[in-house]
From TrEMBL:
This is Gp37 family Mu-like prophage protein. It comes from the Bacteria. It comes from Obesumbacterium proteus ATCC 12841.
Length: 213
């Protein structure tokens, strides 16, 4: 669900932001490089997974868990006029400013589930990563947090992922890696119903067999 959610966030922002950002993609350490190299990529938006905040049991059998995850959208802009303009933008369309990017990202993502089996995204903290002058321009970068939750199902005690899991199954992540697998449960073909009359000493006073073919 982490992969699907990150990709869906990227796609929604890519569609919604249009030319406000030169790129929207999964974060790959771009902000760890040289400042001049970072500046050449701006304005840009990156998306990354911020971690699982907590996990709660949601059923008696302790086989289903509600997982609370956080995703982070990083927005960055540069401006040749001033540090203030890198945040607030300017009179030209290409002077977006990080404040406008923050508002746009929160507007596009808040309350959305992107048609995935997750809870609607809840906007959280917005934090300054850095405001940096660089020669004749200024850089401004912020992070925007969004929280959501989804249900994860545990394997039965002692079981391994099912062999030949379909592509839409969570167990498909193990396909091709030659790990231990379990056979799928047999199909439920019939149900037998036994009837007992009060006071009767018979093992069964009648039966029905229901076929599930």
């Amino acid at each position: 669900m982490i992969i699907q959610t990150e990709r869906a966030i990227c796609e929604r922002l890519r569609q919604g932001l249009g030319r406000m950002s030169s790129a929207v993609r999964s974060y790959g350490g771009e902000l760890d490089g040289d400042i001049a190299e970072i500046a050449r990529q701006l304005p840009a938006v990156w998306v990354t997974f911020g971690g699982i905040q907590k996990t709660e049991n949601v059923n008696v059998g302790k086989r289903k868990y509600k997982t609370h995850g956080r995703f982070v959208v990083i927005v960055g802009e540069r401006n040749v006029r001033s540090e203030e303009a890198s945040r607030q933008g300017g009179p030209n369309l290409n002077e977006v400013g990080t404040y406008k990017l923050i508002a746009a990202v929160r507007r596009l993502l808040s309350g959305q589930d992107m048609s995935l089996p997750i809870e609607h995204l809840i906007p959280g903290r917005v934090r300054t990563l850095f405001n940096t002058p660089l020669e004749h321009q200024a850089l401004s970068v912020f992070s925007c947090e969004f929280d959501t939750a989804w249900i994860e199902e545990a394997l039965e005690n002692g079981a391994f992922p099912v062999v030949g899991a379909p592509p839409d199954s969570v167990d498909s992540i193990f396909t091709g890696y030659q790990g231990e697998v379990s056979q799928p449960d047999p199909d439920w073909l019939t149900t037998r119903l036994d009837y007992h009359i009060p006071g009767s000493h018979r093992l069964s006073d009648g039966e029905d067999i229901i076929s599930h073919d």
